[in-house]
Structures are given as C-alpha cells and as structure tokens.
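Q: How would the structure tokens look for this protein?
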Amino acid sequence: MTPPDRSLDPFARLRGLTGARIGLGRCGQGLPTAAMLEFQLAHALARDAVHAPLDVAALQARLEGPSLPVRSQASDRADYLRHPDHGRRLTDESRARLSPAGADVALVIADGLSATAVEAHAPALAAALRRRLEGLSFAPVVVATQARVALGDEIGHALGTKVVVVLIGERPGLSAADNLSAYVTWAPRVGRADSERNCVSNIRDGGGLPIGLAAEKIAWIVRQAFGLKLTGVGLKERLDSLPGAAEMG
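A: Here is the predicted structure in token form.
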C-alpha cells in the first residue's frame, strides 16, 4: 500500500507551529492509528505525572544552599486529589520545623499535580531566580509534598518572610505533562486569596516559557512587590517593561 503524500496535507505546516492536535484525519469513523497511539501516550504521561511521587532527597541534592522537607495534611495521593483543602495546610510536625529566618524571600518547591515538572525544571529555575534577586536574602528552600499553592502562605508566614515564591507542578495536559508554575504572594499568611497572588505559568524549556525568561518575569514581580507592598490584581505586569519582552513577541 502506498503511503499518503504528506506534501498534500494542508495541516502539516500548522502542526509545526503548535502543540495542539489539529488535522488528525480519520480512518473510517475513528482516528488513524498513529494519532490514536500518540493520544494514548500523552494521556498515560499525564496520569503518571499526577501520581508519580516526588523524590525529595534527590531534589534536595540538586538545590543550592540549605533546604527543608515538609508535607501537607494530605495523608496520601488519593487524599490529596479528593480533598484539596488538606493540601493547603501543614502537618503539625512540618510546622514545627519552620521558624523565622530573618530573610526577605521564602522559596517553596512543591510537587503539586506534576512531580515530573518539578524534577525537570525547579532546580534550574530556583538557581536562576536567586541570581536575578541578588541583594535579597533567602530562607532555606522548602520542599513540600502533597502540596497546593496555598501551602506556601503558611510556610512563608512561619518563616517570617516578606514574600513567598511557590514553584509548583501544573495540572498536566495532553500537550505537556511537565509544565511548572510560579506563584508570588506578598505578606504570606493563611487565608490569602488567589487574587492576592501573581502567577507565571507554562514554564519549561522547549515548548513553554523558557527557564531564563521565566526567572526574569518572576524576579520583576518580586521586586515590584517590594516596591508596592502587594501582589495580585494590584500588581499589573507591563510587558514592555519586562526583560526579554521582545522574545515574547
């Protein structure tokens, strides 16, 4: 059987510009075998990313400076997925490990919904962020498991920092299972609303926001937060003022 002439495929050029599944074709009333297998692989990678445990010891070994492991009140992955609130508060044991550090910034690395993303990108992003925030002091990096974004509020408050930056694995999609997000919150404390944070998402080299540019954006937000004494809806990113803005189109 002669293979199809791909030069006649009107979607071929567009597929090179996006990770979206477009122009997949059909075989009878279903998808072609190759497209179906690619979809099943992406779905399996997304499921694995959600359920894979974070190797805390290996991650700590790749971080610069001291670090502390903590966990949320979610007893296991099933509890974490079924009861989001359990991932937003520390266990008593973990809270006891944290004490005011006299630092400006708390950096939290949290597994979130993709330990795959954290292991792939968080150490490099943390190092790049430290370099771009020279002059500010950092508390020991906190590595949090079974963690939601809001867990950073309690961590930052316990460490007594002015701002907390949470690097967390995003919910995997069928285009990528290793996207990282960063959430910046001024004056962290339990009960902060999502509207009081700034988010930088889709962080990953190769198909997402590159690590270096993400670090520039996060550092810009942090420095603006120190000037304005706030984050969230009151801190608007001005694209033309961000380093690397030309690269973002």
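The chain has a mean pLDDT of 88.

The domain at 55-248 is CATH 3.40.50.11240 (Rossmann fold).

Upvote if useful.
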